[in-house]
Batch of 2 targets.
Target 1
Amino acid sequence: MGPAELLGHQVTDAPVGANLDTEVRPTGVHRIRGFLVDATRGGVLGPLVALLFASVVFSALTDTFLTPSNISLILTQSIVIGMLALGQTMIILTSGIDLANAAIMVLASVVIAKVVKVSDNAFVALLIGLAVALALSAISGLLVSQMNLPPFIVTLGMLTVVTAAARLYTGSSSIPVQNDLIAWLGTPVPIAGFRFTIGVFVWFAAYALAWYALTQTGWGTHVLAVGDDPEAARLAGIKTRRVLLSVYLVAGLCYAAAAWQALGRIPNADPSGYASGNLDSITAVVIGGTSLFGGRGGVIGTLIGTLIVTVLRNGLTQAGIDSLYQDIATGVLVVAAVLIDQITRRAR
Amino acid sequence: MTAPVLSAHRLFKHFGAVTALDGADFEVCEGEVMAVVGDNGAGKSTLIKALTGALVPDSGQILLDGERVRFHSPIDARRHGIETVYQTLAVAPALDISANMFLGREQRRPGVLGSFFRLLDKPAMRTRAAATLRELGITTARSVRQQVETLSGGQRQAVAVARAAAWGSKVVVLDEPTAALGVREAGQVLELVRRIRDRGVAVILISHNMPQVFEVADRIHIHRLGQRVALVRPTDVSMTDVVAIMTGARAGNEGVADADLPHGDGA
């Protein structure tokens, strides 16, 4: 028996709240309002304003910022961190953190490159790369979900081990890849003066899919609930360990995709590459408004956060400002984002 | 009084040398608030856990609607229409009221959208959540889209109780539901308890708060040393009597020979 049957025996004399009444008949206006409430619930409004503000400022300061070629460059430069940040967002939503994401991606990419070199079978190489990323993320996920170890420590260990493994595996030298399938995501897609790549569209599609899964499915609700209050989620009958593990597996899928994207951008697997990819992805997630405390935020914010970081780097370079100032700007932004999160949390 | 909807007979549970349930009996009827009181360590939480599937007793019977049942997990008990509200305000603060009421039991769109694309039916869940709140007279929330963290402690607990009421078709168990609340908020939750009872649901209320128990309970189950030692009506006894029986200063009407109190079921 559920609420459907409860509707059967109505208590007629119960007082009716005026606004609650509107919930019974969601009209067009209410649907739109509801959609806006849902869309901004992750707090994307602030990051969006920041992104637009930075873009306007750089457009005014330089002639080169607001050009099709530069916008294309910003997008292609954002892809790899964007894919890493996608997995990172889901893990942070469960109040975890993944320090090993870039290291896992790098190991997957060198494995893909090596398998292609040895066998010349790119499809098998991609599958093996996917398996590596999934397996490593699964280990992190199992340790976090089944053994209740802190994600920070688990992934710190994973980062150290995987980084070393990638260097041992390659003898610390990078592996060039010459293969059409591996490079496929780097294929240029010229549209009206812009030079997008297939990878840009795959990146957006991945975000759209993740947005759907997180906001429109029961799984997404469970992920948020587990990050928000694991005990409440468990008492509600959610299998919290399974949900946690599934999040790490989805993240592993993102990291494998990031490896493919990285090889599409630069057909050279470097075991020492993306050394700060983990922190860059955390930066993108945090600037995008996802709370490090879990349960609040979403992938749209991360998409904007990733773009903010790239736009800042790109714009300050266009404006001829020393790259070290870019780091200072990014660092200040991260702390400011967490500060805002903390203040709004306290206000609740 | 009708036949009990949920009852237990001679439940035993041992934890090593400790006997937590020592032949405990229990019953609750439709449309009744059964308060369960007892000193700390009397075994009342073990009893409640056995009734809600959180643990399996060593021996004894649990009957639901007269049929013997064995619950192996709280989810198991829930499937049989037994819902539990915990004192810890077990709601997810960042989720909205509707999502909390359907947490773990989300409703999906009919057809391929729901089965393959796993698309949630948010409008339907919101409509049902709002209807349930309205029916229970919870009108303080502006909208079921409101995040639970924007609610006061009492309102949050009201959402938890409403969730239990929405799904607990037979029995709603409230474990110290007012422990974390202020006086006014506790009053609102007790009002909610009455409304649930008036809908014909059996309510089990575990509480330390004697005035609250006397305010809302139809019968009081007094638990001591792993047993029900008395089953009384609040109209027949005083708070002092109940406390005396609870602490063993005075004998109850069960489990001991010289019962000097009127029996709860009017026998």
Target 2
Amino acid sequence: MKSIILTAGARLLVALLLVFSVFMLLRGHNVPGGGFIGGLIGAVGFVVYAIACGTSEAREALRLAPEKIAMAGLGIALFSGFMAFVMADDPFTGQWLFIGATETDKGLPLSSVLVFDIGVYLVVMGAILTLVFALEEEV
Amino acid sequence: MEVLLSLVVGALVAAAIYLMLSRDLLRFLFGLILISNAANLSIFVSGRLISGAPPLIEKGQDFPVGEVANALPQALVLTAIVIGFGLFAFALVLTLRAYRSLGTLDTDEMRVAEPKDPS
Amino acid sequence: MAAAQDNSLPTSPGQALAGWVSVLISVAFFVGFWQALGPVGNGEVLRWSWEWVPSLGISLSFLIDGLSLSFALLISGIGALVMLYSTKYLAGHKHFARFFLYLTLFMMAMLGLVLSDNLLSLFVFWELTSITSYLLIGFSHTSADSRRSALQALLVTGGGGLALLAGIILIGWVAGTYELSEIRAQGDLIREHGLYLTIFVLFLLGAFTKSAQIPFHFWLPNAMAAPTPVSAYLHSATMVKAGIYLLARMHPTLAETDVWLWTLTIAGSATAVFASFMAVKQTDLKQILAYTTLMALGTLTLFLAADTGYAITAAMTFLIVHSLYKAALFMIAGAVDHSTGTREIDRLGGLARAMPITTAAAALAALSMAGFPPFLGFIGKELKYYGALAVQSEPLLVAGAVLLANALMLVAAGLVAFRPFWRGTHSTPMTPHEAPWQLLAGPVILAVLGALFGINSDLIANTLIKPGVAAISSGELEPVELKLWAGINLPLILSGITITLGIVLLIVHRRMRAFLLAMEARLPSFDRGWDKFLDGMKATAAWQTRILQSGVMRYYLYVIFATLLVAVGGTLIWTGAFTGIPDIQGVQVKHWVVVFLILAGTALTTITNSRIAGIAGLGAVGIGVALIFIIYSAPDVAITQLLVETLIVVLFAVAALRLPMLKPEDGFPNRKLDALFATAIGAVVAAIMITVTTGPINRRLTEYFEQSSWIDAYGRNIVNVILVDFRALDTFGEIAVVAVAGIAAWAILKGPKEDAK
């Protein structure tokens, strides 16, 4: 049951949800949000898209196979844990880099923790989409 | 309020177990969702309830001001929800597959590994 | 049999290398331990220690005193000779290198066992010797007999090992340490402790199974399925003496009680006498030797029962004597087998002409075994009589047992080392020829050593025996001098009687064997008993599996939930922790609304027969729970809950299309009972929750996270910082589970399709 309104709306919605999910991911360290929530929002976006336009179109929009996204996320999370080895810390110790920091301002903080959260985001989104797409294609 | 929610958890557990003991796999899945809700709620309540003070550190402060909600059970529950979802989804897929292979959702009929009369 | 194997295949260079490397390793060990002879002879005790598992008090600590040094020299020395022997004996065997790997592994484990100063590491090495023994007995893995014998040995010694572990844990609990050198100082404390008897029995089970004392003796003769070098090494000279070693090692800690004295005396003498009769009944060379080994183990146990200088000196001396001559005789048996193709004594005779060196070595070893002067065996036998007459329990009974056993030993020595070589003519499958030098080196060296030590007993008296006795008796007992001639006294007279009796019995051997065979037919067989025991175990396993593994999911759930109900609910009542439902306070209208939403959703899902209604009910519950998270300051959790709830509804909606309708359950009579059961568990859970939430709470961890979230981890959202920083490794494990769940589900759906029947 393809309806033009639903299809067009879903395209808009998935774009909005994706942007929102990245927003939630990035702000998560200081206010509610984070990789789990961001990943879930992203997944919901594509699930809506798949229901509206069909899974094959959703797969195309995603470009990468969702199981690959999940595995890549797992690899990224693991990699972020091993970043600590560079500084001779125990694995999964957070590593921080403050770009342009001054006395009063911390500048742009980059950290292995953020990389880890990106990994979480990708795993949650990838795993859920793997499952949902497979289920929908079965029916 | 902890007492009231304790009773709610008890009710959820009772309903969940009743459903899980059903012979119908779909009802079993309902029970599975209820019992994971009950488990999450019980962890959350065990950390005590504080309303209106999320575990955030305000800008300009080094520590949370005043008493804030217990962050530890929240972190536990957050991952538990996602894992619980993974478990449920996997169980649902297994159910689908079992129905496709065996043609029934009656667990008493699903005895491929341990048939009624071993022969 | 191993010896009859095709030796025509050349041994590849790599295999030969494996053999020679093994020989070199053991020689190196031997030379190393040789260096310790000086200090230990002066009464020193050498120690090394490394931390292994500090949190459990397990250290890798080693000690060398007289006892462990004697064992270590025997293990590495005989090991070197046996490995040299095996390079020829197993030449061309398909698994030549594997054999040497096992043998070297065993040697390391055995050395670790006797050198350990920590009971727990001793246990680890103890089990390693059992495992390597299993591999070696079952070396001819194509033979069902070998496999059965290997498994039997493993189960018997492994079972004993479990008992030993329990005993070790108890002793560690009583003494507060697992270090042997500290435990031995606490002998009095342990002997007077209420758990002494339990510890004693557990240690005894370990030692008796390993050293094949009655009633656990039956595995040892079966272990002769192993290639002959293994029998010579593991099952006579070293591994089976591990139990004896344990008894000796624990002597300062556990001995000097009546129960120790009597148990060891009775078990030891029963084993010795029984085994000697069994020995002279056999016709296979290896079987005769196996039973004489049992006899020796019994005698050693017997002497460790007592705590007199005579008895302990006798034990130490006999330990060395026996290892020397028994290893030699086993290797000779192998050489005879190798050369003639049979080990049946009735088919062997007059080999002296064809195998002169073997014959000489056999004669030397057998004279030592039979206890003729001037061999070390004679001194050992004299000391046995001294020791027997000095035991506190029943000196005459013990002396009688020893005398009978010794006389029969003489018969066995005659059967093994004289009859095949001197009397009659042979009718063997192969034409006998002298064995190659690798097969001769071991027996000759060991047999000559037996004579040498006898003639000049000072060679070992001060270096090994004296420190050994000191180690066994905590230095309280004076060792007895080793002398060939001590004047005419009771032990010498007993020796004379032994030799006369032995020769008479050797002459009437055939008639005696017929009589023993007739006797044995009437006695119950331990070996068959073992088979029945195993069958019984299997039947029990099958029986309980049929009950527990019903194959009906509901029954499994009943078991799980009933356990929860009984164990947790019972504890709650038993401890009296639950004191009733307190007043419900501080509940506002919005709270009641949320609670009502959850309960209504629950009720709907529980009673409905419509899939859509059920899913809707679940959605209500999920949203209610999310509202609780919102009210009580958990924004992250609430958002996650709402998103997951959405996805659950979507998934269910998609899947429900493929699933059948719900059927009404009114027809099932047991649903009312289920409801009662479920309500009971719900009540227990609610009671636990109330008990927990009204009790004290420890916020130490939460406070730590609150204090360091910004300062150390630069994050203001404490929940997120816990997830991605403080507990990142846990989170990694969790996302891995999510990923696996997703991919497994995908694999199930996309996997090969089978349609409904």
